[in-house]
Amino acid sequence: PLPDSYSPQYVEAAWYSWWEKQGFFKPEYGPNPRGVFMMCIPPPNVTGSLHLGHALTNAIQDCLTRWHRMRGETTLWNPGCDHAGIATQVVVEKKLMRERKMTRHDLGRENFIQEVWKWKNEKGDRIYHQLKKLGSSLDWDRACFTMDDKLSYAVQEAFVRMHEEGVIYRSKRLVNWSCTLNSAISDIEVCSYLHANFDISVMKQEVVVATTRIETMLGDTAVAVHPDDSRYQHLKGKTVVHPFCDRKMPIVLDDFVDMNFGTGAVKITPAHDQNDYEVGERHKLPFINILDENGLLINVPPPFLGMKRFEARKAVLQALKDLGQFKEVKDNPMVVPVCSRSKDIVEPLLKPQWYVDCREMGKQAADVVRNGELKIIPDHHLKTWFNWMDNIRDWCISRQLWWGHRIPAYFVTVNDPSDVDGHYWVSGRSEEEAREKAAKRFNVTADKISLRQDEDVLDTWFSSGIFPFSIFGWPTEDLRVFYPGTLLETGHDILFFWVARMVMMGLKLTGKLPFKEVYLHAVVRDAHGRKMSKSLGNVIDPLDVITGISLEGLHAQLIESNLDPLEIEKAKQGQKSDYPSGIPECGTDALRFALCAYTSQGRDINLDVNRILGYRHFCNKLWNAVKFLCGSESVSDRWILSRLSAAVALCDGGFQAYDFPTITTAIYSFWLYELCDVYLESVKPVLSRTDSEGQKQADICRQTLYTCLEVGLRLLSPLMPFVTEELFQRLPRRHSQDSPSSICVTPYPETSEVSRGQRSSVRMEFVMSVVKTIRSLRADYNLTKTRADCETSHSTLHTHFRLTRFN
User: Fold this and answer.
1) Disulfide-capable partner of 460 in 85, 482, 507, 570 (CB 3.0 to 4.6 Å)?
2) What is the catalytic activity of this protein (predicted)?
3) Whether residue 773 sits in one domain with residue 712
């Protein structure tokens, strides 16, 4: 028998393992007239547990996968995890320091990597457990990790091929450098913060320049002014002398200078600023690097040599005052680049790194969107796409880390004193292959070649960029079975960092787009519109929403995290404010439905847990509706079938347009407002009749109600797989040998299944308006708890006839 009330814990306990055991999540091989749907998961980082942003991604992806599966398509949703080089290394280093007071250097490279693998195994298992609890219908036999042997081989192959073609090259350029991490970092790992800074004006002979980074003036090699600035025309071709050394610096004319900002004269430090770097290239200026990898000053005169960068700031300012070259200080709020991982200020540093030449690949990526081969949804993201692709810069792919794919490049030394140019970089799938390449290049025997592999690892986005085809066996022929995919669904915040790289790498290495469509969802924020942040205490584990958790339980999670004591206290206050009684048990189905209901294209999601709880009550309504059929038998009529048909049409259109709010609204309105609130109430008198005519009417109603429940559950199944499976299995179905064993493999409803009655809809709308008026009168006269007679008068015979038919 069906339990009296809905319990998420009861409903969601066993269905997932049964689905998995039955093989419902596996693709069918061979020809299929309904087509193929293939999608790979955006592999979560093994830095920790999944949060509600991941839950949104998986709710959308799973309901799409289930919808395509129910349409009879060969369906594959491929799981995996990302090694997340820099992010994972940082959290493991913090853990080492907190628990053992050790750095990675104390352990050494090999032992440290073993520690990271331990972390990966623990967190990877946790992530997969969370995905299963979310109901994600992934083919787990295909689960992969970006540092698995198969994927690592593909990464190596991609690098070697692109290096041999000259698309990957080595160059000394400005990079985002974290002095704390001792590594280059990507743009996505650089946060911009508005900082109260000061413009310091400095006299340089006849020119006054202003700067907020006074310590970098030790690396100045020129002063720039705008060529049209009349104030400085007399200085054309002249030089100024650096105040702390005998360096003569030319005054250069460059359009980069804004003559209306500050003094109109700008100091140029080519080795420590991107704009200055480009000015230095144009005017062939010297590049003087004044910072080492740890942020200590080098290549500068005493007493600044060896100082820390921010100590030098004070020292240089004082020295300028002593020389009489300091003019004034002004407030100037500015944007400061900060490393999102280490929280230290990012320095532009000149470092030799590996780069990908993105010019041709970027043009291809722009062209496939312009000509319609690749569709990006919603289309307001097209502007961002073209802005990135049309102005793309070469991609720095090397990182000075230990955790990641070690770069398959080798520094060559030829053991022959007669060779003056014996240093070179070669790439290879193995050291032996690299040695053979080097011997051939330098025309010597292999025994005269010495190799040293690059210590650096590849940017995580490099392996992520080939993920859609590396998981299917590239560069082998196995790739043809499921590549290219159908859809890429992810958050809009990684449109360039991941989506663009996959498109570029797919076209470059396979000659094909990795997917036909890209659907971008919004970012999940808390109920106050704040970004999810561990230090704010608003990062929520989806399992805590599913099973519920006390405030004390939330606090305990903070204590076990990597946050420092001050951040923990701040986060506790945030949790106490938002969840004073903890988080109530909502269940997986309610969480999934809420996330999809929030997904209005283009807007960020301010997630309120109370709204999720409301959808748990909705599950209870479903429960009672089916219990009504199972226990007392049920009724319906042409109107409810017409409303069901309308809901089917809206859902089908919504899935095709990735319009999830339309889907959730249509289903919610049908079940709650039309089926439960109106029809289950209206058929109760019919079921209570005992005469033969009444019994005939009741039988007709039961059949129609059964149709509503069965079709309605199938409509809802992609979004709420657990409760719909439970109720579907309990329906008094018309059993046959070919009946599907699970709702997740039944056909998704089509409008042709359900009749539409326009006339019955008009009649029912009229009756409902009368009922609504009567209910309002009862409320106005405080008769809500009284059974009162109601007398109606009719303006026409037609109205009288329409109403008396429903007595």
Assistant:
1) 85
2) tRNA(Val) + L-valine + ATP = L-valyl-tRNA(Val) + AMP + diphosphate
3) no
Two tokens at 135? 């109901």
Separation of alpha carbons 429 and 312, rounded Å: 45
User: Does the CA dihedral 281-282-285-290 come out positive or negative?
Assistant: negative
Question: Are the beta carbons of 609 and 583 closer than 8 angstroms?
Answer: yes
Could you tell me which of 737, 722, 683 has the C-alpha nearest to residue 706?
Answer: 683
156, 162, 496: which is closest to 360 by C-alpha? 162
- Are residues 703 and 779 both part of a single domain? no
Q: Residue type at 544?
A: D
Q: Are residues 652 and 780 in the same domain?
A: no
Considering 309, 332, 355, which residue would you say is the last residue of a domain?
332
Q: Tokens representing 690?
A: 């005992």
Does 766 share its domain with 752? no
Instruction: Assess if residue 287 is contained within a domain.
Output: yes
CA 317 to CA 198: how far, in whole Å?
12
User: How many angstroms separate the Cα of 442 from the Cα of each of 384, 424, 446?
Assistant: 46, 10, 10
Same domain, 678 and 628: yes
3-state secondary structure of 782: coil
Which residues 6+ apart lie within 8 Å of 169 measured at CB? 163, 354, 355, 357
Q: How far apart are CA 484 and CA 515, in angstroms?
A: 6
User: Is residue 476 classed as helix, strand or coil in its secondary structure?
Assistant: coil
Element (H, E) at 578: helix 565-578
Q: Which structural domain range is residue 227 located in? A: 197-332
Identify any residues that bridge with 605 across adjacent strands, giving them in sequence order. 524
- Res 647 pLDDT > 70: yes
Q: Is residue 385 part of a domain?
A: no
DSSP string, 477-518: GGGGGT-S-SEEEEEGGGIIIIIIHHHHHHHHHHSS-S-SEE
Element (H, E) at 457: strand 457-458
The pLDDT tens digits for 653-693 are 999 999 999 999 999 999 999 999 888 888 877 777 777 77
Q: Which helix (DSSP H) or strand (DSSP E) does residue 178 occupy?
A: strand 168-178
d(CA 709, CA 703): 10
Q: Based on C-alpha coordinates, what's the Rg of the chain?
A: 33
pLDDT given at position 383: 95
In a domain, 27, yes or no: no
Q: What is the largest CA-CA distance in the chain?
A: 115
Sole residue written with tokens 């046959």: 736
State residue 45 phi and psi, 5-degree precision.
-70, 140
Token representation of residue 351? 């470092």
Structural tokens at position 563? 């946050």
pLDDT, tens digit, 9 for 90 and up, residues 63-80: 999 999 999 999 999 999
Asked whether residue 777 falls in the same domain as residue 672, the answer is no
Q: What is the pLDDT of residue 786?
A: 67
Same domain, 681 and 745: yes
Q: Distance between CA 74 and CA 482 in Å, rounded?
A: 10
Torsion angles phi and psi, residue 389, rounded to 5: -70, -40
Can you name the residues that pair with 185 across neighbouring β-strands?
176
Taking phi over 0 as left and psi of -120 to 50 as alpha, with beta for the rest, 529 belongs to: left
Alpha carbon distance 507, 490 (integer Å): 20
- Other Cβ atoms within 10 Å of 421 Cβ, number: 7
Question: Are the C-beta atoms of residues 542 and 57 closer than 8 Å to each other?
Answer: no
- 784/517 Cα distance (integer angstroms): 54
Higher pLDDT, 805 or 81: 81
**Alpha helices by DSSP H, 101-225:** 104-107, 109-133, 149-164
Please, is 404 exposed, middle or buried when counting C-beta atoms within 10 Å of its C-beta (0-12, 13-18, 19+)?
Answer: buried
Domain count, the chain: 3
Q: Which two tokens stand for residue 807?
A: 């007595």
Give residue for tokens 């022929």: 477
What sign has the CA pseudo-torsion 358, 359, 360, 362? Answer: positive
Q: Beta-strand (E) ranges in 35-84?
A: 36-40, 74-78, 80-81
First to last CA, the chain: 34
Residues 769 and 696 in one domain: no
